[in-house]
Amino acid sequence: MSVSVSTHVLDTATGRPAAGVKVELCLEREVLASAETGPDGRIGELAAGLEPGRYELVFWPPSPYFTKVELVVELADGHHHVPLLVSPYGCATYRGS
Asked: Which site from 1, 5, 37, 57 is most exposed, i.e. has the minimal number of CB atoms within 10 Å?
């Protein structure tokens, strides 16, 4: 079994991808992987070769209100894409494809 994770961040206030957003993948608060979104707001492969389990995704978005967004996700075998939509006063996420 193997798990991989990708993500992207969209700034819904501007309608544009959010470049330069730091994203960390953690297991029990230990950082396993860290990267910044590119000009298209994406991190194509934040981590791969992980065991299935419960992980934390930590985003540091460009919002004056949401300065840190933490998600706890249960990752089963396979690839998982976890996007973040952020604006100055709201954020949302979903399981992407």
From this structure: 1
Per-domain residue ranges of the chain: 3-93
Distance CA 60, CA 54 (A): 20
CATH number belonging to domain 3-93: 2.60.40.180
In this structure, which long-range contacts are made by residues 44-47, counting pairs with CB atoms below 8 Å and at least 24 apart in sequence? 44/6, 45/4, 45/5, 45/6, 46/5, 46/6, 46/7, 47/3, 47/4, 47/5
- Among 96, 14, 19, 25, CA closest to 61: 19
Using an 8 Å Cβ cutoff, are 40 and 8 in contact?
Answer: yes
Contact 84, 69 (CB under 8 A): yes
Q: Provide the whole-model pTM.
A: 0.93
The whole-angstrom separation of Cα 15 and Cα 19 is 12
